[in-house]
Amino acid sequence: PGGRPGLAISGNDTALSCGCWRLPLSGLQAGHVYRIEGMFQTEGVGAPGKSVRAILTFERGGTEQFYDHLDAMGAQAGWQRVGCVLEVSEAIPELTLNLFLAWSASGQVFWGDIRLYDLTGKHDGERTVKLAAISGNPEKPKAPVDCLDFYTDRLDTLAGEHVDLVCLPELINSTGLAGDSAGWAEPIPGPTSERLAEKARDYGMYVAASLLEQQGDGVYNTGLLIDRTGGILGKYRKTHVTLAEGLLRGTAPGDVYPVFRMDFGSVGYMICYDGPYPEVPRMLVLQGAEVILHSNMGDGREGGSLWESVVRTRAVDNQVHLVAAMNRGKTCIVSPKGEFLAEGDGTPGTVVVANCDLNVSMCDFSKRPIHRRYDQLRRADTFGELTRHLWDGV
């Protein structure tokens, strides 16, 4: 990188070979916090996610043992960055950094800028954000203004709470209204977004909600995000519309999975029927989402008995915080460990709030955090079948 020297590993015409550069990390001090990072670039490696690894090991009983891995940190000037934080305890053995090329007969990997930083006194181990969600719908609303009054009243209860982001349920401007729902669709910006923007400005928080949106001839189920100053940060259009929603009520599906950069981290959005498709949250996480919002009409599968296990699984598999705002059912905030940090009882208008540390990760058997390991070890080169539709044939 930048013309500086690096380390190269080349395949030896044998697809089953693995090789690495090794660097002992001697002199680590107990009680200190370190960050180790590096960069790599490949040539002729068919599946870098399969073949390129950076791991930490230690020796026990004459055998090399896995300790931790370096997480993907994104690209920089054509190089991929990896890194991790080490909190050193008295019991930590001497570690070795291993930079691998594996299972690539003729490819090459170039490693560079391997650095170790002492973060002691500069790293507090937490990135705390205050997340909230609102549940339910007003009873027998006559017009969209009744729906808005219901939600803005709940937003007012967060005054002085210093909430960073609040998520509202699905289709807050049309659910429960009589007549053809498409007739309640509105543009963005429009009356609903402007009322929500006012509250976002008043309380200095991000506001997210699913609205029935009209744009040109199209009607969409749109996840809207408003920033702390009342500006429109972005929109996500529900990709998996139900048959009734799409074919009988004319709601068109979206086609992309944007991730929104906020001042505390990265946030993705999914809506109701997106939930049964594990590919949706994974698409968001692969783009860096640390929090996933889920505006959801409800989950009545098997009488609602599956809901808690589903949201816990989505959070654990993707190592994200999941904020689910339910029209009908238990609104909740779930951590990457599968913990319910906050949970409503299903009463309409319930507001749940939780302080969430975005650095929290589920730990494996060794009590080391998983972080982005699942994403980094994904065998995307074997997943081609996932893009085939059921009707495309075998």
What does this 3D model show about the protein?
The structure is a single chain. The chain is of the alpha+beta class. 15% of the residues lie in helices and 37% in strands. The chain has helices spanning 48-51, 144-156, 191-203, 243-248, 279-286, 307-318, 373-376, and strands spanning 7-10, 18-25, 33-43, 52-60, 63-69, 71-76, 79-87, 95-102, 108-118, 128-134, 165-167, 206-215, 218-226, 232-237, 251-252, 259-261, 266-271, 291-296, 321-326, 332-334, 340-343, 351-357. Strands 10, 11, 12, 13, 14, 15 and 22 form a seven-stranded mixed beta sheet that branches. A six-stranded mixed beta sheet has the order 16-17-18-19-20-21, with helices on one face. A five-stranded antiparallel beta sheet has the order 1-9-3-7-6, with no helix packed on it. β12 and β13 form a beta hairpin.
Question: Which key phrases capture this entry?
Answer:
7 helices; 7-stranded mixed sheet; alpha+beta; 6-stranded mixed sheet; 394 residues; single chain
